[in-house]
Amino acid sequence: MSRYKSGLSLGEYALLGVLHERPMHGYDVSRRFAPEAELALVTPLEMSSIYAMLKELQEQGLIEGERTVVGLRPPRTVFHLTASAKDLFCTWLGEPVRRLREVRSDLLLKLFFCRAAGPAHSRRLLDAQISVSATYVERLAGLAADAPSDSFERLVYASKIGAARSTLAWLQEERARLEGVAC
Predict the structure, then answer these.
(1) CA distances from 47 to 8, 22, 39, 179 (A)
(2) What is the pLDDT along the chain (183 residues), one digit of tens a residue?
(3) CATH number of the domain enclosing 81
(4) Residue 32 sits in which domain range?
(5) Which of 62, 73, 149, 174 is the most buried (most CB within 10 A)?
(6) Does residue 59 sit within a domain?
């Protein structure tokens, strides 16, 4: 059993999240990422990739597999999280993302798993993300203000500010929705 690598991929976190819900075998895990499944909207994974990641997570000591036989079916390996994987996943789940582009993938995946844990988890994550995103908008606004008015630099900052404000507005709307308050 080896120590886990410091940075897991989004797909690996998705697998930890699925196994955090309950132990299951690889085929059941793969059905959670089928094209018609909700997780595929954010993290589409092919069956071959899932099995490769399960093997990697097992080699890192984050999941353990237990072979089971049911009736006349071939043996299956049922995977479950180790204690360190549970801690790693729960820590990751509560952290806001640092880059705007990660909102469309990482944050949405986190919100998917937060929903299963209850609205309080989603509210905490959204509050943290709103704070990080507001700070990002403020920093960009300062950089834009310091750039020459007709410069390409200011154009780039203005573009980033527009996208960041839009994301911030969506985060605030989602947070208000969780409270049952219309924006």
Answers:
(1) 18, 19, 14, 38
(2) 334 455 899 999 999 999 999 999 999 999 999 999 999 999 999 999 999 999 999 999 999 999 988 778 888 999 999 999 999 999 999 999 999 899 999 999 999 999 988 899 999 999 999 999 999 999 999 999 999 999 999 999 999 999 999 999 999 999 999 987 554
(3) 1.10.10.10
(4) 10-94
(5) 62
(6) yes
